[in-house]
Amino acid sequence: MNLLHLEAFKAVMTTGTFSSAGKIVGRSQPSVSRIVDALENELDVVLFERRRGKAVPTDAAHELLDELERILVSMKKIKDFASQTRAAGNDAIRIGVMPALATSFLPRVIARFARQFPDTGVAMNVRFTPTVEEGAATQLFDIGLAEEPFHRTGFETRAFIRAPCTIAVPSGHPLAEARVITPPDLRGVTLISGTPFTAARHLSDAIFRAAGVTVRPRFETTLALGGLALVQNGMGLGLVDPVTAAEHVGAGVRLVPFRPEIPFNVGMLLPDRRRKGAALDALVAMLLSERDDLLQKLPVP
């Protein structure tokens, strides 16, 4: 998924036809149709019903539009943030970071960094992955941390986290003592998951289909931390990314590995024209060191 997919989708939502949308994005009607088809295939949802030249949005399309509006607002805020930073002459290291890494992990790294470099500031901008990628591609950030895959150019990508998602289980649940949870184990279980437009949900849906298991999450959330809180309140079992699991699981919840694995792949984005210097190099090294410590907390089947 890239910005063109999202721009074409929004244009169709706005105009109601592929031909009119083409005039907005500067593409032909067949080209816009192919772009939307590719987006539907990637997300594995139907976004529009084609009726006599009209594109009628489905419920999934309206959900995606809500997500897209938030992304576009975030992009504008990033540009405003960069303009204000430049205007103020702020020499802080600018980091764009996905929410899962922003609540505990990155603040801990920044505190460690500040002790070694007390005169260097850090500006932490918390955004969803497409916005972090956009900020790195346009050189608004010095470092980006976001979930792969990426589609833009203008930055170097380094593997940062390669770890599987896990299942958070209330301690009193029969599956709390399982060594591993597989799709058949979740038949009839109340599952808490991400929305259909999150990477983990997209992958988990495919795994359940392949296993012939029907699992319809009763509760959905865009933030894994919210899902984990629902588990802690006894609302069901939750599919949780490894960072949220390692950082925030508390008493009354057990983490159980899930097989087949649902990968959580986070990349470090380093813009091509990023600043150079000992402070930035040290911050990157601290991020890697703290990451290694974090991954030691994850369950091993």
Strands, helices and their partners?
Layout: H1 3-15, H2 18-25, H3 29-43, E1 48-51, E2 54-57, H4 59-87, E3 93-97, H5 99-102, H6 105-116, E4 122-126, H7 129-137, E5 143-147, E6 155-164, E7 166-170, E8 191-194, H8 199-210, E9 219-221, H9 224-232, E10 237-240, H10 242-248, E11 253-257, E12 263-271, H11 278-295
Parallel strand pairs: 3-4, 3-5, 8-9, 8-10
Antiparallel strand pairs: 1-2, 5-12, 6-12, 7-10, 7-11
Helix pairs in contact: 1-2, 1-3, 2-3, 4-7, 6-11
Report on the architecture of this protein.
The protein is an alpha/beta fold and 301 residues long. The protein has three domains: 3-65, Orthogonal Bundle (Arc Repressor Mutant, subunit A), CATH 1.10.10.10; 91-162 and 265-295, D-Maltodextrin-Binding Protein, domain 2, CATH 3.40.190.10; 166-261, D-Maltodextrin-Binding Protein, domain 2 (3-Layer(aba) Sandwich). The protein has helices at residues 3-15, 18-25, 29-43, 59-87, 99-102, 105-116, 129-137, 199-210, 224-232, 242-248, 278-295; strands at residues 48-51, 54-57, 93-97, 122-126, 143-147, 155-164, 166-170, 191-194, 219-221, 237-240, 253-257, 263-271. A five-stranded mixed sheet has the order 4-3-5-12-6, with helices on both faces. Strands 9-8-10-7-11 form a five-stranded mixed sheet. A hairpin with a 2-residue loop joins strand 1 and strand 2 (54-57). The chain is flat, with a radius of gyration of 21 Å. The mean pLDDT is 87.
